[in-house]
Amino acid sequence: MYRYDEFDHKIVRERVEQFRTQVKRRLSGEITEDQFKPLRLMNGLYLQLHAYMLRIAVPYGTLSARQLRQLAMITRKYDKGYGHFTTRQNIQLNWVQLKDIPDLLNDLADVEMHCIQTSGNCIRNVTSDHYAGAAAGEVEDPRIWSEIIRQWSSFHPEFSFLPRKFKIAVTGSTGDRAAILVHDIGIRIVEQNGKTGFAVYAGGGQGRTPMIAPLMSDFVSGDELLPFLEAILRVYNLHGRRDNLFKARIKILVHAIGADEMKRQVNEMFEKIKKNERLALPKQEEARIRSYFADPDYQQLEDENIDSKNEDFLRFVRVNCAAHKMLGYKIVNISLKTKDIAPGDASAEQMEVIAELAERYSFSEIRVSHEQNLTLAHVRQKDLFEIWKSLKAHNLAIANIGLISDQITCPGLDYCNLANARAIPIAQKISARFENPEMQEDIGAMKIKISGCMNACGHHHVGHIGILGVDKKGTEYYQITLGGSADENAAIGRLIGPAFTEEDVVDAIENIVETYKMHRKDGEDFLTAWRRLGNEVFKERLYASA
Amino acid sequence: MLLHKNGTELKQNKKIINWEDWQSQNEELVVKNEKTTLEFPNDLDIHLIKDDLNYFDEIVLNFPVFRDGRAYSQARILREELGFKGILRAVGDILLDQIFFMRRCGFEVFDIKDNANQEEWQNALNDFSLSYQPTNDGMKTIWELRTQKQ
Amino acid sequence: MAQHQRKNAAEQIVTANRLVDGVVVYWSKGGNWKEQLKAAQIASADEAQNLLLEAQAKQTEIVDPYLFEIERENGRVIPASQRERIRALGPTVRLDLGKQAGAK
Predict the structure, then answer these.
(1) Closest-CA residue in chain B for A276?
(2) Which stretches of A223-360 are assigned E, i.e. beta strand?
(3) Are A101 and A77 spatial neighbours (Cβ–Cβ below 8 Å)?
(4) pLDDT tens digits for A217-241?
(5) Handedness of CA A427, A446, A85, B132 (dihedral sign)
(6) Smallest CA–CA distance from A32 into chain B, residue
(7) Which chains touch A (3 or more CB pairs under 8 A)?
(8) Residue A423 and residue A405 in contact, taking contact as beta carbons nearer than 8 Å
(9) How far is CA A385 from the centre of its chain?
(10) What does pTM read for this prediction?
(11) pLDDT digits (tens, 9 = 90+) for A428-440
(12) Could A237 and B105 be called an inter-chain contact, meaning their C-beta atoms sit closer than 8 Å?
């Protein structure tokens, strides 16, 4: 993975010192909250329901064992001994204190981490595929370009006061595990006539008005990528709406002027910007960054027959472990979704266990998935049993990856200032109802995504089943959508009918599952069945007695 | 206070023409062969003046609220695409922590509060010694510094 | 921030977050900010705006003060909205955290 050089270190330390001064000026009353707020947001510090919340950047979801250990230490030293992994591959701490932040940022800088641009109207963390560099079928490791974009977007002098936040995601294969089509800019690495380049999409997003990003260019070369991104950002910076916070994302601009007009304006800007040769990444620099994402030192192995009588272990391999591009290896997914914890949370102890396992078995590297789980990307099949035993001892071996209890869930009204309803208890109830592992495997691939408000941080629009918490006259209700998808066939889910109470929503989910099981053909999964059936049969079942 | 990017305070009393006046008066001014200081709105296309740049010794760009960052793009277009060589001034709601970015985008004069602490603002002009992005400000990017070292 | 408040709220309290550590505080009868809801000064519908102004004057140690509605239940004062109940106690999914745990 990428290692900071002296320049990267220095710029982060300068930012930490800058923020230390800003905090001092705020605490002394020299600047008001209005003046301080944009500054603290650009350093990822929010004020939430109970306390400050700090969002730490995990660039394209890649962590070293050393970094994960440091995060564990930081949660103990400054917070309450746990952290929350987010749908943008970042980690959040919920109980930090303003006065401690400068020291905390220094502790992060010690391991090449920071909170820069994890909030505010600027370019946010570039996210990517948590199987990058490990799964077969990749044109190229998307993290190479994620790192290049990260550097280009850090402290960008022109794009730090955009109309709204800006999110970029990169995938390296046709299969999209990074949800690029619901990002402000989505990038897919492609090959054309033997050359590698990028398909670039712009104007996707969720929130109040979910949209799939249209294509801006089907092939941008390596040299042209940064000028092309700069062109999109400049068009957005100049023409994105500034009068209405809820209509300020680039998706609104693209929708308003149309994809063709957006393409035209972007290309016009691009033609001018690319004349600036200095914006093309020097070839040596590209090679240097690329070298950090070379294959690890794989052993030459054969695929093994996982021979065991242990049902739990076999299930873990079957459900949580994905195929690796190298023979004899597997990708191991660690679920942070049990009914007893908030989805995506991990304790300091659990982080340390995972760091240890990564060090011993996976080249010291951990991935954070936008689905709020962790991944050990390069594990020898012969080591699976030992890893599973360690995970099991720390409640990390739940075999539910991609199944119904593996839900994306936002913090919701339990933590978040913006929320209208709680989301975590709903996820926990669903997990409890569907706890039985055989039942889960029988239901099969199922992505439930839950948001506590319209901002859709839980990605409910692109859940196979999406749940949106709303507030009706002071009571929490839950709306259900069906048929959403975040992959290369991205789609926005469709509302099924009136909202359900907290008491009824889990029964509703069960009814949906029963209906699917009744109607499924030839082992089709839920999404495939829904695409064939539509909402009707589900509506009938859910609202029959109404 | 008018702060120059070299940290000094400017004492100036220039007449600033706004966009409406420029459109109605530009023929006169051109005939008089006087260079003007133009204030251009942040919600119009800066390319509208691309053929008139020779008539301006200074262009004033606006930040109506600190969150409104359109003038950063206008400045870069003026400097890098249109080759404007005159003075660029930033006016409006300018936060201390923004002038480093403004300077990088091509601004060299900043219209800040009269009671501003000049030393603090001078320091803020150089908040970062390093940068990743190439602009017209003469600063070498980190990528260029790296390539140099090899 | 999402505020759940009826227009004709009968009784209200002023709340904010403490600047230095983000802890939820309430404008108290003593004319300062206290962590415990029961120490909060309660304003009638007429008094509410004035109470807010009074609290806003003492703003150096807090952030974003605002009014919210309370109800009385068996003599106890409790927030009318789910959101303020959660703010007063802590997350419903971690009963070991927040004010409900007896910790700060």
Answers:
(1) B80
(2) 321-323, 329-334, 345-347
(3) no
(4) 999 999 999 999 999 999 999 999 9
(5) negative
(6) B95
(7) B, C
(8) no
(9) 28
(10) 0.95
(11) 999 999 999 999 9
(12) no
